[in-house]
Amino acid sequence: MPSHYCRKDSTKLYLEQFFQTKQELYREYKNYCDENGFSNLILSNPVFDQTFSELNLALYQPKKDRCDICCGFETKNISEIEYQKHLEKKERARQEKDKDKELAQQEKVYTFCMDLQAVKICPVVNASKIYYKTKLAVHNFTIYDMNTHVCRNYWFNETEADLSAPTFTNFILDFIKDKCTKNIPIILYSDGCCYQNRNCILSNALLNYSIKKKVLIEQKYLEKGHTQMECDAVHSLIERKLKNRNIELPSDYVKLTKEARTKPFPLEVVDVNHDFFLDYADQKNWIYNSIRPGRKVNDPTVTDLRHLKYNFETKLIEYKIDFNEEFQPLPVRSLKYPEIEYNVLHQRRLKIKEIKWKHLQEIKCVLSKDCHSFYDNLLH
Ligand SMILES: [Zn+2]
């Protein structure tokens, strides 16, 4: 499985979580060689290890990495000054979030946070013959209201949507449209992942919504490495519910998520279809062609953005690269205000690779009969 976090080494591929240790993997590899008549070709443990890392593989992806800067300071690769700056920024972002949570409790603003859960696969059954098969990727994007504790989970598999900016833009806009019935500012918290939360597609959609509804929207990004939010606790609840459960269909994730929380009330779940999505990437509906705060080489870039404001009165996007600074308008924009009309994003379900389709057909034999038709109908 590919990495789904914004990380430097995101070219790494990860195994599914069948194996907890390299030793377990090595044992399975040896068994496989023995059973298939390659006993005389078995690599030694160190050579196997080396080959594994040369192939840029890793066992599985930990939930969240420890912060690079904090780790770097411990191992003396980060200077005291840089580390102190990092701690200040982390603390400042936390204060900002606490303040907005309080405002939300006073019903002066809406404050939401959001994140993508670690990738899931389908099917999950306890049968060793499916170790070697590739499976469907299934994702959950969660949005949490920090005042009401309403929490909606958008579950989708890779045949209904991909992990690109328009997908997440649709979830965020859908949630806002449903939940923001009062005209008070909307504040969105997330990590700084570009394809999910910090990109031109989402920004244009939020600006258009702000202008149309005459409502102020702000986006604030937590400090990298310290992005713990209320939705993480929800993901832990869901993970607990999924433990030792068989998954035969993507909709099993939907069912289990509905049962994962009882207090103060159950989680909301949307089983997302490809026809749910609007094409927010269509540039004819854009006011801004870029959300880059600078134009010259050493100017700040998109990843420096900390805070964005969608101002319906001025029809401008304003930004801060530090919570303590004043807002400045983003420089690149056109003067046109388009007649907004969004088309449908996906005309049909998305195709999977032929090899994956083949593998899934082979896996069917260990699944209940009534879910076979789901796998029969996948496009490749
Ligand atoms: Zn840190």
UniProtKB/TrEMBL annotation:
Record keywords: Coiled coil
Ranges where the DUF7869 domain occurs: 168-302
Residue runs in coiled coils: 76-107
Source organism, top-level taxon: Eukaryota
Entry keyword annotation includes Lipoprotein: no
UniProt keyword annotation of Lyase present: no
Pfam families for the chain: DUF7869
Protein name: DUF7869 domain-containing protein
Phylogenetic placement of the source organism: Eukaryota, Metazoa, Ecdysozoa, Arthropoda, Hexapoda
